[in-house]
Write a structure and sequence with these properties.
By secondary structure, the protein is of the alpha+beta class. It has helices spanning 12-21, 69-79, 124-142, 160-175, 181-189, 235-242, 261-264, 269-280, 288-312, 320-324, 327-342, and strands at 3-5, 30-34, 42-47, 50-56, 89-93, 103-107, 201-203, 212-214, 221-224, 231-233. Helix 5 (181-189) packs parallel to helix 11 and helix 9 (288-312) runs antiparallel to helix 11 (327-342). It is globular.
Length: 343
């Protein structure tokens, strides 16, 4: 994963805190910001040969309930003993005086972050193995009973999809810079067609290929990262979000449209979903088109937030303006899925 020069204030306080909390960080530290990601700024911290990762809230005015680094820290701590691979979360600091915003520190996981869903650098069997591993880990997450890992209160009980629609409608309105007609139609349609509620499970909220770290030479996930949107929720909504590449139109980042899946060794959506069902004990999935429309709507709202932060000058990535331009085509794709769900 590429890095760039850090834009943190004076790091003297941070260095003293790291020296107190982590063995091997008593000496001078250097910071480099990871270029990947649009939300919470993330930094590689080095002291000699020792490395760790710092993830902070961005500076400036933020949307309500967004950038919850404390929740990321909590869920990673809770999942550490489970079959879901996560980085070791070292400590959390809510004292904004240290670097300007709250942050947490986690271990540095040395591995591969793959950003192209077509996996061009792998052969056919390698691609199949990577997708099977992605499937295994999201299924493992959705099989966890939240109470058994101390996360029974990690989200509100009941009405997950309705609350999410309301939340992302508010977030979208708070960051709206121009009228996007498909979003207006979705805001009206989605609440009126919510499927029967699923039992609550832990939902990552942004589970995708480039939010996991693979072993450098094996198709094995070493760590799932970027838990900012995690909560107790509907596992089918979490799965649909993860499966969006199979439904995204060509031209949108991550789309598998136009890829010869069979020749590439990449499963079809139907094959991938069947494997998930086998691993989670489900016979089949119902209302998946609705969940897909909801997931794309949610992503469009997120992208609109990225666009707004770029205009305000406090986005965490130089690519934020470009990412924000995807809000409108993502909303159009979401409305197409809603029409498909409506039959």
């Amino acid at each position: 994963m590429s890095t760039s020069a850090a834009t943190l204030p004076d790091t003297a306080r941070l260095q003293r805190l790291l020296a107190a909390e982590l063995p091997g960080f008593a000496g001078p530290i250097t910071l480099q910001q990871f270029a990947h990601g649009q939300s919470n700024p993330t930094y590689l911290v080095q002291s000699g040969s020792n490395r760790c990762v710092l993830r902070r809230k961005p500076p400036g005015a933020l949307l309500p309930s967004a950038h919850a680094v404390d929740r990321e820290f909590r869920i990673m701590r809770a999942l550490r003993p489970t079959g879901v691979p996560v980085p070791h979360a070292c400590f959390y600091c809510d004292d904004a005086a240290v670097i300007g915003t709250p942050f947490y520190v986690m271990e540095y996981v040395d591995g591969r972050v793959i950003q192209d869903n077509t996996l061009p650098s792998l052969d056919r069997s390698g691609r199949a193995a990577v997708y099977d591993e992605l499937n295994r880990v999201i299924a493992a997450l959705h099989c966890i009973e939240p109470a058994e890992v101390g996360l029974a209160d990690f989200g509100k009980a009941g009405a997950y999809v309705a609350r999410q629609i309301a939340r992302w409608t508010r977030q979208y309105r708070a960051s709206e810079t121009a009228t996007i007609e498909p979003m207006e139609r979705l805001i009206e349609w989605l609440p009126r067609h919510i499927p029967p509620e699923q039992p609550a499970r832990l939902a990552h909220g942004d589970y995708r290929l480039d939010n996991v770290i693979f072993h450098r030479s094996e198709p094995r996930i070493l760590a799932v990262i970027d838990w900012e949107l995690s909560t107790l929720g509907d596992p089918l909504a979490d799965l649909a979000y993860h499966c969006m590449p199979w439904r995204l139109p060509a031209g949108l980042d991550g789309s598998l449209e136009g890829c010869d899946l069979q020749a590439a060794g990449i499963p079809t959506e139907a094959q991938y979903v069947r494997r998930y069902c086998a691993r989670t004990g489900r016979e089949s999935l119902e209302h998946f088109d609705y969940y897909m429309a909801f997931s794309m709507f949610r992503l469009a709202a997120i992208l609109q937030g990225v666009a707004a932060r770029a205009l305000q000058g406090n986005a965490s990535s130089a690519q934020a303006t470009q990412a924000g331009r995807r809000a409108r085509p993502m909303a159009e794709a979401a409305w197409a899925q809603a029409q498909r769900a409506a039959g």
